[in-house]
């Protein structure tokens, strides 16, 4: 079993199989009900792309999440769309598509406890985890 400990706002993404994380996961945050990338999100993704390009042996696991506002089905789709948007930007920033794995978690707990159904910025995220 892999145990992930959330560190600050970065958190962690579970790498596939026996992959080893390379540093902490990089969080990209979103506005409610949105998969649009704003300027701060694009800067975070560009930084992660630079790190990935500097180490050609690593892969990027891109894991989308959503808060608990709305249905499970809609939030799964939203988390998948967010992850795809981040992956597309990584490719645009020069990371080869075959080095990116996309995952969607749907409704994901916020990084700090809040009542269910309450919007949570920290749950509306995509984590970019570089893995060996």
Describe this structure in words.
With 132 residues, the protein is α+β, with helices and mostly antiparallel strands. It has a single domain, classed as OmpA-like domain (60s Ribosomal Protein L30, Chain: A), CATH 3.30.1330. It has 2 helices and 4 strands. It has a 4-stranded mixed β-sheet. Helix 2 links the parallel strand 2 and strand 3. It is globular. The chain starts with 25 loop residues before the first strand and ends with a strand. The N terminus is likely disordered.
Strand order of the main beta sheet, please?
Answer: 1-4-2-3
Query: What is the top-level CATH class?
Result: Alpha Beta
| Biggest sheet architecture | 4 strands, mixed
Number of domains: 1
- Corresponding CATH superfamily: OmpA-like domain
Shape: globular
What's the average pLDDT? 85
Uncertain runs with pLDDT below 50, 5 residues or more? 1-12
β-strand amount: 15-25%
The CATH architecture designation is 2-Layer Sandwich
How many H/I helices?
2
Radius of gyration, CA atoms, in whole angstroms? 14 Å
Main location: membrane
Pfam families: OmpA
Domain OmpA-like: 17-132
Subcellular location: Cell outer membrane
Task: List the main descriptive attributes of the protein structure presented here.
2 helices; 4-stranded mixed β-sheet; 132 residues; 60s Ribosomal Protein L30, Chain: A; alpha+beta
Question: What is this entry, summarized?
Answer:
Residues 17-132 form the OmpA-like domain. It comes from Acidocella aromatica. By secondary structure, the chain is an alpha+beta fold.
């Amino acid at each position: 079993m892999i145990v992930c400990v959330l560190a600050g706002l970065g958190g962690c993404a579970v790498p596939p199989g026996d992959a080893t994380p390379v540093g902490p996961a990089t969080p990209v945050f979103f506005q409610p009900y949105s998969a649009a990338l704003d300027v701060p999100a694009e800067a975070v993704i560009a930084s992660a792309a630079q790190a990935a390009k500097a180490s050609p042996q690593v892969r990027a696991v891109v894991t989308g999440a959503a808060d608990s506002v709305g249905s499970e089905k809609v939030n799964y789709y939203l988390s998948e769309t967010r992850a795809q948007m981040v992956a597309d930007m990584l490719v645009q920033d020069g990371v080869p598509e075959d080095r990116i794995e996309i995952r969607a978690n749907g409704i994901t707990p916020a990084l700090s406890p809040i009542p269910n159904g309450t919007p949570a910025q920290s749950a509306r995220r995509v984590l970019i985890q570089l893995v060996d």
